[in-house]
Amino acid sequence: MENEYEVPSPHEHALEDAVEKGGDTLTQKIALMTAILATVGALISYQSGSAQNEAMFLKNESILKQSQASDQWAFYQAKSMKSHLDDATAALATVPEVKARFLADKAKEDTERLEIQAEAKKLQAESRKLGEDSEAKLRPHERLALALTFLQIAIALAAITVLTKRRWLLWGSVGSAAVGLIAAASAFF
Q1: d(CA 68, CA 127)
Q2: Which of 106, 107, 175, 177 has the greatest count of CB atoms below 10 A from its CB?
Q3: If phi over 0 gives left and psi between -120 and 50 gives alpha, with beta otherwise, what is residue 165?
């Protein structure tokens, strides 16, 4: 059997020395900060996605209601045309029974047309309200997306700080994280 020898690299020696000395406290603090920022970022990402999905759902409902309102307006136009035709036919009719029948049809069409008009207006109002609700739900999503961006920048700066050992980058990371947290908080006010 062959004997294998392991020759540790200088990097492995440095790691062993760091472990024996208790580790680099700056690195440990940055690792903890990064873990916290990543957790907060995940929560913000979830909330942002949820707000975006709800806004899209409301917008789709708004479009559906507007489509239904358009259908009602088309039906209203058809009833109006039929009412005008009944009126014109009644005016041209010479037989009193025929004239009475067309005037009765016109009255029926006019009644139905008013009901259809009321329904169309109601659907348009619902569509407008859903559209406004959708816009209101989208505003927090935009702020949360901005907050997530700043938290990701903070995590990247923290990683660069660990690699370069430049403490001033840590302040950039903390500043970016603070901006991200403020942006996230502003999404709910």
Answers
A1: 9
A2: 177
A3: left
Task: Using alpha carbons, select from 151, 155, 131 the residue that is nearest to residue 143.
Answer: 151
Instruction: Dump pLDDT digits (tens) for 8-57.
Output: 666 566 656 655 665 568 888 888 999 999 999 999 999 999 999 999 99
Residue 92 Cα distances to 55, 102, 110, angstroms: 55, 10, 19
d(CA 161, CA 38): 16
Banded model confidence at residue 162, pLDDT cuts 50, 70, 90: confident
CA 48-29-155 angle, 5° bins: 35
Measured distance CA(174)–CA(178) in Å, rounded = 6
**CA-CA distance, 60 to 50, in Å (whole number)?**
15
* pTM given for the model: 0.68
